[in-house]
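[Meeting: bench + compute handoff]

Bench side (C.D.) handed over the final construct sequence. Compute side (W.E.) agreed to return the predicted structure before the next meeting so the bench team could plan truncations. Sequence as handed over:
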Amino acid sequence: MREWLASAPPGGLVPRDKINAASTGARWALRRVLAGDYGRMMSAILPGSSLEEEAKRLEELSVALIQDNNWQALEQLLSPACQFVTTQGSCNRTEAIQLMKEMNLGEVRFKDFKVTQAGANLIVSFWLSASETIGGKVLATEFSPRLSVWQREGTSWQCIAYGDFNRV
């Protein structure tokens, strides 16, 4: 991701008010690959990157896809068996994508990533602050914990579980 950040033009191709500066590289790279199966390409494992760098890149990519309303690419990142849980309950992949489509996701900030690996799975906990609306309700903008589980499929990652513990 550092290479993307270093090669991004000044000011980027991305509205900087949408996500933090660390995520700009992921958004810039995403917009540079606007053809074909780019969601899968962007989720590919980067040689030489640490687990934490991989996890941050995957989370930042997911946020960028939601902010860009790029549902086709987001669906490629989510396993068909993916489950989501929020303070409102749990839902399957289809229901979660519908919630994301109704969400108005603004500025996002990440902090305190903790990443472990179990076999082909990355378990990622982090704190996220976001301006977001779910089900017509504005959520708290303070940092709240998140948990995701990513499973390696060949040379790509797919999210198999996600927990959003933000308060309504």
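W.E. noted at the follow-up: Helices lie at 2-7, 21-32, 38-42, 51-67, 71-77, 93-102. C.D. will use this when planning the next construct.
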